[in-house]
Automatic annotation (TrEMBL):
GO terms for molecular function: dipeptidase activity; para-aminobenzoyl-glutamate hydrolase activity. GO terms for biological process: folic acid catabolic process. It comes from Pseudochrobactrum saccharolyticum. This is Aminobenzoyl-glutamate utilization protein B. Residues 1-23 form the signal peptide. Keywords: Hydrolase, Signal.
Length: 531
């Protein structure tokens, strides 16, 4: 055979192989598209479940570490759908991990579950109306994220069974996020050690995700308890050593120090125990600080300053001081390849189609809190590069997870723009058609991005490469917890014992009522209070 003929045959074989490869790739793309259509249909078929979960968890309204009804409700649903449940993880009685499937990739889906103090609010009314006066509620919207994840996971499970796709689905709750009191313990105790990727969901007012270093802060939540000696405040005050003096001296010192800290810092405190009554010198008093900064180095630095200040205050007041870490949160850094994949699916899903009633309600709520009255979001936010220098702001302990496994957060449009946050007005939409539509939209994006991760090993590899070689190039995870620190699971016990009996009377009965608004007798939207 001549050299020329051999070359022609070889070239022909190479071209044939290339065409076959392209055909296979095309078939794979077609398969992925078909798989996404299947999971989207699976989410839509579970819209009723999404509504029931969103409304039920809203009605529980449980505070950090006390999410008993919420965790039982979610795990019961997952268990009935074939997931195995491990409860009480990382020393968290309301913590759990639910697993289904086998093999790689291991996709972990998480969302927070706790509420906020004094944010009890009737949903679907655009004026202040507590369901139970003084009680906690979902004044941030943490009642909705688990609905996003569970519905997406069940749709993915259907696809994986039908198409025999390898992979493991892992669901978990953000316990006590409002106290930054759960995820760092989960990280420390190895809950995510086998996860390949994490998709986290959090309520928002648009359908969006991000990558890189996020705006906001990391933080340490720490309580300083001073101990002195009691005495009669009028009869023999010289025999007392006031623990409250220690607290006040520390606070004075910290407030003076603020001027000489970086502008990026944020710090705040409350005095949970200031003594018993004025005529008894306080033998015990405590102050609880959130110490926030934008990077690990400065969080640790400011925490050290606070510790020194507490010790100095104790010396000045002739008391002793002990500190107790309640929780920590690392600065957040999200994964670029995963965010880009999720954003492509966001463009496919789009924002919900809002009705005139839903927009009128949103504008009435905005008016009630003196916010800009422009209604619900109608344009998707673009996937933008991260800020050159992240700005200070709030914290979220998903940051700790983001430093041990490639992670993204998806925000979904179940809340209303231009509200204060951590406020009763943020509860107003959270058991209404606005929340239900937002949950379904978010669930579609999670399920579709799950398909990408299940069918494209190169996406998981790219996520890991970014995590290792970009995210951790100049900064490594710095845990703030010590080996002996434990979750403060006693917190909020008394508050829930006080309010739960009245709150239980208003738990949503999904078997009896189509929606929670129906059960409460709310004719959505109620724009003004009855005269």
């Amino acid at each position: 055979m001549s050299c020329t003929l051999s070359s022609k045959i070889a070239l022909s074989l190479m071209m044939s192989a290339s065409l076959l490869s392209q055909a296979a790739a095309q078939k794979s793309e077609q398969d992925v598209k078909a798989y996404k259509q299947q999971v989207t249909a699976g989410v839509e078929s579970r819209a009723k479940l999404a509504q029931e979960m969103t409304d039920s968890i809203f009605s529980f309204g449980e505070l950090a570490f006390q999410e008993v009804e919420t965790s039982k409700y979610i795990t019961d649903i997952l268990e009935k759908n074939g997931f195995t449940i491990e409860r009480g993880i990382a020393g968290l009685p309301t913590g759990w991990v639910a697993r289904w499937g086998s093999g790689k990739p291991v996709i972990a889906l998480g969302s927070d579950i706790d509420g906020l103090p004094k944010t009890s609010q009737m949903p679907g009314v655009a004026y202040r109306k507590p369901m139970v006066e003084g009680a906690p509620g979902h004044g941030e919207g943490h009642n909705s994220g688990q609905a996003v994840n569970v519905v997406a996971a069940l749709a993915m499970k259907d696809l994986m069974e039908k198409e025999k796709l390898s992979g493991t689905l892992v669901l978990w709750p953000g316990v006590a996020e409002e106290l930054l009191g759960g995820k760092a313990y989960m990280v420390r105790d190895g809950v995510f050690k086998d996860a390949d990727v994490v998709m986290f969901t959090h309520v928002g007012n648009n359908l969006q995700t991000s990558w890189g270093a996020a705006n906001g802060t990391g933080m340490v939540s720490v309580k300083y308890t001073f101990a002195g000696e009691s005495a009669h405040s009028a009869g023999a005050p010289w025999r007392g050593r006031s623990a409250l003096d220690g607290v006040e001296l520390m606070n004075i010192g910290w407030n003076m120090k603020r001027e000489h800290l970086r502008p990026e810092q944020r710090s705040h405190y409350v005095i949970p125990d200031g003594g018993d009554q004025p005529n008894v010198v306080p033998s015990v008093a405590s102050v609880w600080y959130f110490i926030r900064e934008t990077d690990f180095e400065n969080i640790a630095k400011n925490f050290a300053v606070a510790n020194t200040m507490s010790e100095a205050a104790a010396k000045m007041s002739d008391t002793t001081v002990e500190r107790q870490i309640i929780g920590t949160a690392a600065p957040r850094h999200f994964n670029k390849p995963m965010a880009e994949a999720a954003y492509a699916n966001i463009l496919e899903v789009g924002l919900p189609k809002w009705t005139d009633d839903e927009n009128s309600f949103a504008k009435a709520v905005q008016k009630a809190v003196k916010g800009k009255e422009d209604g619900l979001a109608t344009e998707l936010k673009k996937l933008a590069p991260p800020p050159e220098k992240p700005e200070s702001g709030g914290s979220d302990d998903i940051g700790d997870v983001s430093w041990i496994v490639p992670t993204i957060t998806l925000n979904y449009p179940s809340n209303i723009p231009n509200l204060p946050g951590h406020h009763w007005s943020n509860a107003m939409s959270m058991a209404t058609p606005i929340a239900h539509k937002g949950v379904v939209a978010g669930s579609k994006v999670i399920a579709m991005t799950g398909v990408d991760l299940l069918t494209k090993p190169e996406l998981v590899s790219a996520a890991q490469d970014y995590f290792t070689n970009v995210q951790q190039k100049d900064q490594k995870y710095l845990p703030m917890l010590g080996a002996d620190d434990k979750p403060q699971i006693q917190l909020n016990t008394e508050i829930m014992q006080q309010f739960r009996p009245e709150m239980q009377k208003l738990y949503y009965d999904a078997e009896k009522y189509p929606t929670y608004l129906d059960q409460l007798g709310v004719k959505f939207p109620e724009l003004t209070a009855p005269q």
